[in-house]
Amino acid sequence: MNRLEILRFALRGLLANKMRSALTTLGILIGVAAVILLVAVGEGSSQSIQKNIQRLGANTLTISPSFTGGGGGRGGPAGGGQNTGPRTQARQLTLADAEALADKAAAPSVASVSPVVTAGSATATYEAASHGIGQLVGTYPSYFEAMNRQVARGTYFFNDDVLAARKVMVLGTTVAEELFGDLDPVGRQVSVSGVPFTVVGVLKESGSTGMQDADDVALAPLPAVQQSLTGFGSLGSIVVRATGASATATAQAEVTAILNQRHGVTGTAAADYRILNQATLQETVSAATGTFTVLLGAVAAISLLVGGIGITNIMLVTVTERTREIGIRKAIGAPRGAILGQFLMEATLLSLVGGLSGVLVAFAGTRFTIAGIEPVLVPSSVVLALGVSVGIGLFFGSYPANRAAKLRPIQALRHE
Amino acid sequence: MSAPVLRVRELVKEYGEGDARVRALRGVDLDVDQGDYVAVMGASGSGKSTLMNILGCLDVPTSGSYQIDGADVGLLDEHQLALLRNRRVGFVFQSFNLIPRMSALANVELPLVYGGVGQAERRSRALAALEQVGLSDRLHHEPNQLSGGQQQRVAVARALVTAPALLLADEPTGNLDTASTRDVLDILDRLSAAGRTIVVITHEDDVAAHAKRVIRLVDGAIVEDRRQAPVDGPPPRLAEAAR
């Protein structure tokens, strides 16, 4: 009695009841396909979120003022002073802070520092067209690299432009389209709240990052924006780029040390600034999406379990139905192992065929975009789902198979 | 004289518990020699089917010993019992008990599959067994395409194919018409003449007339043991025909 014979008996047993076998297989198919597909959807959404975060610029720290602990509000007295001492009120971020951060000796992990001011609702006009720019940013050229923004047409602005406070501007694609339509904006003049700026470049499209349109921006040299729009007050934020991905943590520590000293934050006092670390943000988000994926996988795993119970059910019915046949086989000398093998093989075949076709369905399914997400196949989920489905076949099939094998021949033969 | 193929001592079989206890066999002693053709007769309820099931190792006795070919069945474990059923005993049932949706050939091959016989030898032995029962032209028919007599002949072929020491038949003609009954009994006669040891259970005198020895059971005990022909001679009907 070899394995091939057992396989032949099992196949014959399954084919005798094609409809039943097909439906049982379908249960496992759906379970396996659901596990693989849902995990792929979870992975796809997590990857797309990660990509969006990465697009905001890797290795960067964004420092913004925080007023929870102090008496000053936005627009309150700008703390330009350098004096240290007991902190009485929150200080704004200043250009001097930014310059201090750029000190290579105190902050060796910092590659570049870009002070940023943002003018809120600035309206740009060109001839008859006008557009409320979502974010008008005054900054240094290093901002482009730190935020991972590239110019598609024209040029960036340079340090010279900053020193001379030239009124030049790089537009995001949304702004460029709204104002110029099909025209090439480079070299033309737009007027922002009545101040003329010359367009020198247009940014590459970066797509929406969820809440806001990342292309609805305009970038100009810091002093030019301060001069004409925001005034020479405090900075909106400071963007610091670390020397490498691994250096962001040390960079953050250096920045914290410098700012604490400059702002007189000591001991347990709450800092009057906040540092947003892209790396930690990324970790937080991937942890969240990881949970999401696990949740999806768990729901799918339940359907796989239900499919497994379907196998048990069918095998129990099969064993009951074929009790007499089992009796005959035992009467002519079938050893217990052969009966056990045959029914186990039937259960395993059901789950294996169901599992494999489930994998095929999942492979086909991941080629489509599901709910706006491009699924990403996770190889380990395929292996796991297939392994679990075969395991389920063996596990859930073993009970009915054992029952069949244990029957005394005369009991089985008398069964009607 | 060699050791008996069957040796049964003090065989008791009880069913049920307490007041509902039924003693189907009350201490049966029986020896069947090599080449004998025994008919076990009795009314229904006399315990003859119970005896047959125990002889075929399908059921276990409550007490008593039972040896086939010198092997004590009571001492065998399950795997050895399966081997015994496969190699030493051929069983023919009243209701044929062929496996549905399997061809006659596949049904006959089945015991050889469980016995671990290779495919080519299996095929030739199954063909020979079917030839012996005159069904060479029905090899690929499934049981539901065969008449009762043909099904029973397939069952006889299946019982014979392993060349067992003992052929047990439980009312083999109970479900058959007279023509088919004659066919099956002829086959058993020929097998007996060829030296096969046969035990048949029946309640028909016509069937018992074919046997060399008739045993009558009443209420689970042997009440008559009559020899109709010598063990080493041909069965009585064939002997008559030869005369």
Automatic annotation (TrEMBL), chain A:
<feature type="domain" description="MacB-like periplasmic core">
    <location>
        <begin position="21"/>
        <end position="257"/>
    </location>
</feature>
<dbReference type="Pfam" id="PF12704">
    <property type="entry name" value="MacB_PCD"/>
</dbReference>
<feature type="domain" description="ABC3 transporter permease C-terminal">
    <location>
        <begin position="298"/>
        <end position="408"/>
    </location>
</feature>
<keyword id="KW-0472">Membrane</keyword>
<dbReference type="GO" id="GO:0005886">
    <property type="term" value="C:plasma membrane"/>
</dbReference>
<feature type="region of interest" description="Disordered">
    <location>
        <begin position="67"/>
        <end position="87"/>
    </location>
</feature>
<feature type="transmembrane region" description="Helical">
    <location>
        <begin position="376"/>
        <end position="399"/>
    </location>
</feature>
<dbReference type="InterPro" id="IPR025857">
    <property type="entry name" value="MacB_PCD"/>
</dbReference>
<keyword id="KW-0812">Transmembrane</keyword>
<feature type="transmembrane region" description="Helical">
    <location>
        <begin position="338"/>
        <end position="364"/>
    </location>
</feature>
<feature type="transmembrane region" description="Helical">
    <location>
        <begin position="292"/>
        <end position="317"/>
    </location>
</feature>
<feature type="compositionally biased region" description="Gly residues">
    <location>
        <begin position="68"/>
        <end position="83"/>
    </location>
</feature>
<keyword id="KW-1003">Cell membrane</keyword>
<dbReference type="GO" id="GO:0022857">
    <property type="term" value="F:transmembrane transporter activity"/>
</dbReference>
<comment type="similarity">
    <text>Belongs to the ABC-4 integral membrane protein family.</text>
</comment>
<protein>
    <submittedName>
        <fullName>ABC transporter permease</fullName>
    </submittedName>
</protein>
<dbReference type="Pfam" id="PF02687">
    <property type="entry name" value="FtsX"/>
</dbReference>
<dbReference type="InterPro" id="IPR003838">
    <property type="entry name" value="ABC3_permease_C"/>
</dbReference>
<feature type="transmembrane region" description="Helical">
    <location>
        <begin position="21"/>
        <end position="42"/>
    </location>
</feature>
<dbReference type="InterPro" id="IPR050250">
    <property type="entry name" value="Macrolide_Exporter_MacB"/>
</dbReference>
<keyword id="KW-1133">Transmembrane helix</keyword>
TrEMBL record, chain B:
<dbReference type="GO" id="GO:0098796">
    <property type="term" value="C:membrane protein complex"/>
</dbReference>
<dbReference type="InterPro" id="IPR003439">
    <property type="entry name" value="ABC_transporter-like_ATP-bd"/>
</dbReference>
<dbReference type="InterPro" id="IPR015854">
    <property type="entry name" value="ABC_transpr_LolD-like"/>
</dbReference>
<dbReference type="GO" id="GO:0022857">
    <property type="term" value="F:transmembrane transporter activity"/>
</dbReference>
<keyword id="KW-0067">ATP-binding</keyword>
<dbReference type="InterPro" id="IPR003593">
    <property type="entry name" value="AAA+_ATPase"/>
</dbReference>
<protein>
    <submittedName>
        <fullName>ABC transporter ATP-binding protein</fullName>
    </submittedName>
</protein>
<keyword id="KW-0547">Nucleotide-binding</keyword>
<dbReference type="InterPro" id="IPR017911">
    <property type="entry name" value="MacB-like_ATP-bd"/>
</dbReference>
<keyword id="KW-0813">Transport</keyword>
<dbReference type="GO" id="GO:0016887">
    <property type="term" value="F:ATP hydrolysis activity"/>
</dbReference>
<dbReference type="Pfam" id="PF00005">
    <property type="entry name" value="ABC_tran"/>
</dbReference>
<dbReference type="GO" id="GO:0005886">
    <property type="term" value="C:plasma membrane"/>
</dbReference>
<dbReference type="InterPro" id="IPR017871">
    <property type="entry name" value="ABC_transporter-like_CS"/>
</dbReference>
<feature type="domain" description="ABC transporter">
    <location>
        <begin position="6"/>
        <end position="241"/>
    </location>
</feature>
<dbReference type="InterPro" id="IPR027417">
    <property type="entry name" value="P-loop_NTPase"/>
</dbReference>
<dbReference type="GO" id="GO:0005524">
    <property type="term" value="F:ATP binding"/>
</dbReference>
